[in-house]
UniProtKB/TrEMBL annotation:
InterPro entries: S4_RNA-bd_sf
Gene Ontology molecular function: RNA binding
Protein keywords: RNA-binding
UniProt superkingdom: Bacteria
Protein name from the UniProt record: Ribosome-associated protein
Annotated source species: Amycolatopsis sacchari
Amino acid sequence: MREVVISTDSIRVGQFLKLANVADAGSDARSLLESGRVRVNGEAEDRRGRQLVRGDVVTVGDTELRVG
């Protein structure tokens, strides 16, 4: 599991996917979310605006990322 450090208290999942280099642009993040491949804390997520906080785990396919 890779930790991705954020500089604020929270971050939107679309922004987080770009920060973690999983998505190159917002449209890529949207495609990932709409495809059903993104899970947050084990639950499917399709909203780009979902707020993440430190400790949340985002899974994209086989890649696990922890918000740090």
